[in-house]
């Protein structure tokens, strides 16, 4: 799937009045509420509602609660599901700017091609997840929100593995990635940070929060980046601003409202460099076959979200929320089309993309605690609806008229760009509408024994209208999940689950036709160990996922996607977090993933690996406070060889990173070194014509001041 290139848009203007009006109808996202965990008696315990940030505590990479797997805050140990949370402390200790700086710490998450680094782009348990298919506070990002997420406003990243359709409706088979953003706090505090580093990189960020008046809290996060990149002509700049306000309307009612705006400008270089005779490292790391005269592409977007939290009684509460996103995208990019038989003449095609989009999502959910005889229930039930419209226009140069050739071994730049005019007339349009109703019940059968059951009914419709055709698709879907967790002893539990999922593939084929939905079935068996209060956690899980009607990048036109056959992914995942007193924090993961095509119209494809899914992958780092105020933090990222869309291969790699930090009072300064040994490695790729080298050794100096 090259959905980004179909609808590469992400920006426009926020129609605030539309957001405010639709809020009256709205519906809730992933709960930001905190639930008091009290022992249940005959009467269900009181449900507390709070949309403020929790108080600060000792830094930790472990967390005992999550919101993604249940759409509200619940203890992870109570759930028969595999959930990984990357906390804000882990993000800070990696001096991360984007989510891809830390997401590979979650087992089963690996880099995908990323369209030259423009998106967040991953595989999860072997299946592709890119920016448009991630979640932000429980709302699907969609094309209007498809961009590389900045961490300045991210409180934590949660990854639920396996199909989540029984809770969220349309969902990818590998799982869901949810970015939980920061909330206003009752405690006034601020932090500013400045970073400078290799490749002319500079960054400034702000995070400030506190009360505005009695019952009114605010939070403002903002960041700006600029860089020339480690590859030639890869200029990049970006900003994001995100103000949030929460208001206590009554003792049992909270209202939260936010807006966000972002903009990126970059010189598009989506595919990298070609392999030469199977060698993915045939060129210097900095080599690029983009053109310095190529105008900077821009992508921008705005978001508005309103959520209402209301306690109906001591045991029941209601959440209502709405979100609207607008996006805009303008890009000219040079794409590799053919490496001539001489092995050095690369023919490039200029693509000219313009699009704008808008989506509105409504969610409503009711949650409560009650008892039926000796059984204690925690129920959440709700309704979701979403509509997105993408208008786009595509122009391509003609390689038979102007092949736009460059010698890859002796490149000369500056030739006039080929013509790629946008077609006249109406823009092509893709629309997507979906709605569903769900219920999810966590039942306490006995001390230490919980049963989770959930079901959902969905319907969707998508249409594609171009100058030459009109196509549509849609169907109802029923999905479910069930699981059991048994706590053997206080520190250890066993769990297992079954789940089904469906994904009405977003986007179109190269001929403009819409795509059919994927359907998946998965099982998991896991063991979870927790020692102390968020001091040490260890998870081990076996999994198997079967997916039919899979969609993959079209090998003949990587701007689009095709569907074919079936795939299966199975494997083992291990995850560890540790906090030993205040002196040592650690996080590590490993995944063995066997993800292959099991059925295909082309017999040659059967048994082939799913793109960019490494058989072995792992990551980890340590933050060790070995002297008062002074800490060191070694880390590594490892992956084995991976197959690309055309089944060509790129080698695996091990990359070592390191961090040294010194804190004195409210000031912390750190030096982060990526690729300490300056090893050559191939980060990712699309096909034999496009592979992306990893960055050489680079350093980043960061100073943060808190007050």
Task: List the total number of helices.
Answer: 4
Count of extended strands: 37
Radius of gyration: 25 Å
Largest sheet: 22 strands, antiparallel, barrel
Low-confidence segments, ≥5 residues, pLDDT <50?
1-45
Looking at the structure, what is the overall shape? globular
Q: Strand content of the residues, in percent? A: over 45%
Structural class based on helices, strands and sheet pairing: mainly beta
Give the terminus-to-terminus CA distance. 46 Å
Into which percent range does the helicity of residues fall? under 10%
Question: What would you note in describing this structure?
Answer:
The protein is mainly β and 707 residues long. The protein has 4 helices and 37 strands. It is globular.
Question: How would you summarize this macromolecular structure in one to three sentences?
Answer:
The protein has 707 residues and is mostly beta strands. The chain has 4 helices and 37 strands. The two termini are 46 Å apart.
Keywords:
707 residues; mainly beta; 22-stranded antiparallel barrel; five-stranded mixed beta sheet; 3% helix; disordered N terminus
What layout of secondary structure does this protein have?
Elements: H1 3-6, H2 16-23, E1 65-66, E2 74-75, E3 83-87, H3 88-93, E4 109-111, E5 121-124, E6 127-130, E7 135-136, E8 139-140, E9 154-161, H4 165-168, E10 175-181, E11 189-197, E12 201-213, E13 216-227, E14 236-250, E15 253-266, E16 297-311, E17 316-339, E18 345-372, E19 375-396, E20 405-407, E21 428-446, E22 449-465, E23 470-489, E24 492-504, E25 517-531, E26 536-553, E27 561-580, E28 584-599, E29 616-627, E30 630-639, E31 642-643, E32 649-650, E33 653-664, E34 667-674, E35 682-687, E36 690-693, E37 698-706
């Amino acid at each position: 799937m090259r959905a980004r290139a179909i609808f590469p848009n992400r920006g426009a203007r926020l129609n605030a009045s539309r957001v405010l009006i639709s809020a009256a109808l709205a519906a809730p996202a992933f709960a930001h509420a905190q639930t008091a965990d009290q022992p249940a008696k005959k009467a269900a315990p009181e449900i507390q509602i709070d949309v403020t940030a929790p108080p600060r505590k000792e830094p930790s990479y472990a967390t005992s609660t999550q919101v993604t797997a249940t759409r509200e805050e619940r203890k992870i140990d109570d759930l028969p599901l595999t959930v990984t949370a990357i906390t804000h402390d882990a993000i800070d200790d990696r001096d991360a700017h984007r989510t891809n700086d830390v997401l590979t710490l979650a087992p089963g998450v690996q880099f995908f091609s990323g369209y030259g680094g423009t998106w967040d782009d991953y595989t999860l348990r072997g299946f592709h997840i890119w920016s448009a298919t991630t979640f932000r506070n429980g709302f699907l990002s969609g094309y209007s929100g498809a961009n590389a997420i900045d961490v300045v406003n991210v409180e934590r990243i949660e990854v639920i593995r396996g199909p989540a359709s029984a809770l969220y409706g349309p969902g990818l088979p590998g799982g869901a990635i949810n970015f939980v953003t920061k909330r206003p706090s009752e405690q006034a505090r601020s932090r500013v940070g400045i970073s400078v580093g290799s490749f002319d990189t500079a960054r400034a960020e702000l995070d400030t929060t506190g009360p505005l008046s009695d019952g009114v809290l605010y939070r403002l996060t903002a960041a700006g980046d600029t860089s020339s990149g480690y590859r030639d002509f890869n200029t990049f700049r970006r900003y994001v601003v995100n103000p949030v306000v929460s208001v206590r309307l009554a003792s049992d009612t909270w209202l939260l409202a936010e807006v966000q705006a972002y903009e990126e400008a970059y010189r598009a270089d989506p595919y990298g460099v070609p392999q030469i005779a199977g060698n993915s490292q045939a060129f210097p790391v900095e080599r690029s076959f983009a053109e310095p005269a190529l105008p900077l592409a821009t992508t921008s977007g705005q978001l508005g979200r309103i959520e209402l939290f209301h306690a109906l009684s001591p045991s029941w509460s209601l959440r209502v929320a709405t979100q609207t996103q607008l996006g805009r995208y303008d890009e000219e990019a040079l794409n590799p089309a053919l490496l001539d038989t001489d092995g050095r003449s690369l023919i490039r095609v200029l693509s000219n993309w313009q699009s704008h989009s808008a989506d509105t999502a409504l969610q409503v959910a009711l949650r409560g605690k009650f008892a039926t005889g000796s059984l204690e229930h925690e129920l959440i039930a709700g309704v979701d609806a979403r509509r997105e419209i993408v208008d786009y226009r595509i122009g391509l140069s003609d390689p038979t008229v102007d092949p736009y050739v460059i010698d890859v071994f002796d490149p000369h730049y500056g030739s006039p760009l080929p013509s790629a005019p946008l077609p006249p007339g109406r823009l092509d349009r893709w629309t997507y509408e979906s709605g569903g109703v769900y219920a999810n019940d966590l039942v306490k059968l006995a001390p230490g024994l919980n049963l989770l059951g959930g079901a959902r009914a969905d319907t969707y419709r998508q249409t594609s209208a171009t100058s030459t055709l009109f196509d549509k698709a849609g169907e109802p879907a029923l999905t479910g999940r069930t699981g059991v967790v048994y706590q053997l002893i206080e520190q250890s539990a066993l769990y297992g689950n079954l789940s089904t999922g469906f994904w009405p593939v977003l986007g179109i084929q190269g001929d403009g036709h819409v795509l059919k939905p994927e359907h998946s079935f998965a099982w998991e068996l896991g063991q979870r160990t927790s020692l102390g209060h968020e001091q040490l956690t260890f998870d081990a899980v076996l999994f198997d996922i079967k997916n039919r009607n899979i969609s993959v990048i079209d090998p003949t036109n990587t701007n689009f996607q095709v569907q074919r056959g079936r795939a299966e992914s199975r494997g083992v995942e291990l995850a560890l977090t540790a906090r030993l007193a205040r002196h040592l924090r650690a996080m590590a993961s490993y995944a063995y993933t066997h993800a292959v095509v099991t059925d295909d119209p082309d017999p040659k494809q059967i048994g082939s690996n799913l793109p960019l899914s490494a058989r072995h992958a792992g990551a980890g780092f340590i933050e060790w406070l070995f002297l008062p105020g002074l800490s060191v933090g070694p880390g590594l990222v490892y992956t084995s060889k991976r197959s690309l869309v055309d089944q060509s291969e790129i080698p695996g790699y091990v990359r070592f990173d390191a961090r040294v930090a010194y804190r004195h009072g409210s000031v912390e300064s750190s030096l982060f070194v990526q690729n300490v040994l300056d090893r050559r490695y191939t980060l990712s790729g699309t096909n034999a014509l496009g592979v992306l080298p990893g960055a050489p050794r680079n350093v980043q100096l960061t100073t943060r001041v808190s007050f």
